[in-house]
Design a protein that fits this description.
It is a single chain. The chain has an eight-stranded parallel β-sheet, with helices on both faces. The protein contains seven helices and eight strands; from the N terminus they run E-E-E-H-E-H-E-H-E-H-E-H-E-H-H. The chain is globular and about 45 Å long. The protein has one domain: TIM Barrel (Alpha-Beta Barrel), CATH 3.20.20. The protein is of the alpha/beta class and 212 residues long. The structure holds zinc ion. The site of zinc ion has 5 residues, from loops.
């Protein structure tokens, strides 16, 4: 359990220790004391030689400081072809099922691809769409399918408002603002007290990432 962990997805390593889940490619993952990580291959950066990354990922996922698999996912705006993205995603979701850790998903203009993968892979762990910026209709479809949503610096306010508080996470991703700024903004948009919001998201983090 972590009392400090507030940010479920970041690429920055300069935040407070233990405050965030730092996302790294397996070959770039160096585990430092007091920090949390997720590891995976982003769909936009797939290339030849990724098998080595998978071998490394397989070794790292058992580490207790690695809390999740990802980010991985689907992106229609990249040159990487669908087949490659699909195989990559299948391997990640298989690994997430095997090691019983949540999957952190990048999804850009590809909800249909994600739902197809979901039918095939039958997730047995939480799937979390990170950096969700979609409309409330898309949020509802994802929530109805059992997924979780993580919101960052930019999001659709109506989509945030239709997300049940027990299915919600917050993140900085690549933003330059702090996670506290994001909590303040979201609390304002939800018209709720920021301490109450923090407590709720921390409960979600403990339940989903620490099995408590
Ligand atoms: Zn990211």
């Amino acid at each position: 359990m972590s009392l400090e962990l507030l940010d479920i997805h970041t690429h920055h390593t300069d935040g407070g220790p233990g405050e965030a889940i730092i996302s790294k490619q397996p070959s770039e993952l160096v585990i430092e004391p007091g920090r949390w990580y997720s590891t995976g291959l982003h769909p936009c950066y797939l290339k030849e030689g990724n098998m080595e990354e998978f071998v490394m990922m397989n070794k790292m996922v058992g580490q207790s400081q690695v809390l999740a698999i990802g980010e991985t996912g689907f992106d229609r705006t990249t040159d990487v072809d669908y087949r490659a993205q699909k195989v990559n995603f299948q391997l990640h979701s298989f690994l997430a099922n095997t090691c019983q850790k949540p999957l952190i998903i990048h999804m850009v203009k590809s909800m249909d691809w994600l739902f197809d993968a979901m039918k095939e892979m039958k997730p047995r762990v939480p799937w979390i769409i990170h950096g969700f910026r979609g409309k409330p209709e898309s949020a509802k479809q994802l929530l109805n399918a059992g997924l979780y949503l993580s919101f960052g610096e930019k999001y659709n306010v109506e989509a945030l408002r239709v997300t049940p508080l027990d299915r919600l996470f917050l993140e900085t991703d690549e933003a330059t603002c702090s996670i506290h700024d994001i909590y303040n903004k979201v609390a304002e948009d939800l018209e709720m007290n920021v301490e109450k919001l923090e407590k709720q998201v921390k409960n979600n983090i403990n339940r989903i990432f620490f099995n408590r």
